[in-house]
Amino acid sequence: MTLTVLSFVGILLCLLVGGVPVGFAIGLASLILLNIESRGMADSTIIAQRLFSGIDSFPLLAVPLFMFTGNLMNIGGITKRIFDFANHLVGHLRLGLGQVNVVASMIFAGMSGAAVADASGLGPIEIKAMLDANYDLGYSAAITAASSSIGPIIPPSIPLVIYGIMAEASIGRLLLGGILPGIFIGISLMLMNEFYFARKLGAERGKFAGWRPLWQSFRRAFWPLMTPVILVGGILSGIFTPTEAAGVALVYAVALSIVYREITLKELLALSKETMRSTAEVLIIVGAASAFGYMVVSAQLPQMILRTVSSLTMNRWAVLALINVFLLIIGCFMEPVAAITITVPVMMPLVRQLGIDPVHFGMVVVYNLVLGLLTPPVGLVLFVTAKIAGLSVEELVKNILPFFIPLLLSLLIITYVPGIVTIIPDLLMG
Asked: Using an 8 Å Cβ cutoff, are 395 and 177 in contact?
């Protein structure tokens, strides 16, 4: 069994180092290992069957719909209204545009479901506004990247949907479970702005523009702000399922874009093509992960891990600490969706054995992997933000390091205070 696992890991690493895309690498490694284990006598159609059965899932429909919604809001005039409202709300605080950056990300997280959508959509607006106000470029890019980590936490969330499918957990509870952690992460970043960067940069408190401009900006942003309210309210009331909520969100985003008249038919078609391409990438990974899951079960890897960990400790808090370290390392080298599809099926038997709530564990998994988007060598948010700001990745990494203090503190709170994740699902869904 151990040899089987090591063989798979070795084959997968060789393929990844050789530049093979993640989804194809996982599928090929599973196929090669299947033939090695069976001495070429296995029916290779098993892999093909697993590839198709892995994506034959109704909840997976939420992934392209949420992707399309987030991309549409980036170019449909919605991000500008969100930024303007956040600016009137907290722009007068010390290091005002830094605080605006965080608040705007918290609001946009309730619409996009992805960190990269946040960075690529709000990022250009935020960084330009901060540079026009003579903010330091390194700080502007760093707070933009750090605040993007809220995107996959506050519902909707593409990684949480994928986790829910892999772990067979309630997607509705998972989405609701992200509300308080997302708010907590945002507040921790704002406190870092107030008590460290504002003093370091000598920032002074600005002048509040007044209630009338705030009200006007709120009116302009009202309908975009209603997106998370409609989604959460619809799920809780039973009007639609979490998957159907993704469809409602897309229809709502299209309607807003038409009303605001800030998107052309040509742009809409181009956006559709881009969403289809991104969806295909995700589904290939999910399908290949299903084939990998078959190999995991055949090799009895979950049982082996359970026995190994049991020989060390069965203290759930110690196990969670080990899992955090493991996922933080994995997140540095693998995109969240791919990492979730590979690691979750392996870890879930251990999680259930220890009595850890799957919803709580889902938040731990997703946030660990989201932090990987801010670290090289595969940190996609890092590269997107660096390109927007015109900075080298090395310079951005140097500037973002202080923000890992509140981000890692938030991770510890999410890990060791399960109630911050489970209280809202328990109250609203029982």
From this structure: no
Residue 419 has pLDDT above 60, yes or no: yes
Sign of CA dihedral 338, 342, 345, 351: negative
Q: Are 366 and 109 in contact (CB under 8 A)?
A: no
CA–CA gap between residue 283 and residue 161 (Å, rounded): 13
pLDDT for position 44: 66
Record the pTM: 0.84
Question: Tens digit of pLDDT for each residue in 101-123?
Answer: 999 999 888 777 778 878 887 88
Closest of 103, 153, 144, 142 to residue 121, by C-alpha: 144
> Before 377, cis peptide (omega within 30)?
yes
- Alpha carbon of 65 to those of 99, 120, 139, 232, 408: distances in Å? 30, 18, 33, 16, 31
Taking each helix axis from N to C end, the angle separating 242-260 and 211-237, rounded to the nearest 10 degrees, works out to 150
Region of 264 on the Ramachandran plot (φ > 0 left; ψ -120 to 50 alpha; else beta): beta
Location of structure tokens 């599973």: 30
Whether 296 shows a pLDDT value over 70: the answer reads: no
Count of all residues that appear for the chain in the document: 430
For the chain, the structural domain boundaries read 2-429
End-to-end CA distance of the chain: 41
Distance, CA of 27 to CA of 29 (rounded, Å): 6
Q: What would you report as the CA-atom Rg of the chain, rounded to the nearest whole angstrom? A: 22
Highest mean pLDDT among 187-191, 218-222, 257-261, 353-357: 187-191
Tokens representing 270 are 């181009």
Which amino acid is it at 36?
Answer: I
| Three-class DSSP category at 57 | coil
Alpha-carbon distance 42 to 36, whole Å? 9
Q: Residue 414 — very low, low, confident or very high, per pLDDT cuts 50/70/90?
A: very high
HSE of 426 in the Cβ direction (CA atoms, 13 Å)? 10
**C-alpha distance from residue 141 to each of 271, 285, 318, 335, 384 (Å):** 26, 30, 35, 21, 10
How many CB atoms are located within 10 Å of the residue 305 CB?
16
Contact predicate 294/340, CB 8 Å: no
Most distant pair of Cα atoms in the chain: their distance: 75
Cβ contact 21:338 at 8 Å: no
CA–CA dist 116, 151 (Å, integer) = 8
> In this predicted structure, what is the pLDDT of residue 189?
96
